[in-house]
Amino acid sequence: MAGYRAYRGRDYEFGRRLLALRTACALTQSQLAELLGVSRKAVGAWEGGASYPSAPHLRHLIELCLPARPSTKARRPGLQVFAGHAASTWGVALSDDGHLVADAAQDGTVHMWDTESGAQLRTIRPDRLYERMDMAGLTGITEAQRGALLAPGAVEGKEV
After folding, report:
1. What is the pTM of this model?
2. The domain defined by 9-67 carries CATH number 3.40.50.300
């Protein structure tokens, strides 16, 4: 259907948190917009949940508003970079005490990180199709088909 656009709801929770971060930094929308090089209207849209800041704008906002935590490692104040996903990151959450970060990516994985050291603590992956499928006793398939099932994680005669 020409001109059809799917309705996307507003993300009020993100907007509320962004507003809290901005006000904790004692900045007006206009002041923040000037620091980030965007319009005041863009900041209003972010806080209203109508849109999201780009990754560079979000990173700059974090650098502006979050104080650096003391660390023995040299790093940029207020910024910790976590690298580990093979695909785009869709979301990030910080624990209430600020010691853990969880991020989710397009590939379905969730990584948990220690904010102080930057160490990756855990990776959670969704089951893949045929993963842990027991092929013991499976007949009527070729060796190529058997190999195609083993590649994504099927098992042959092993305990699942």
Report:
1. 0.41
2. no
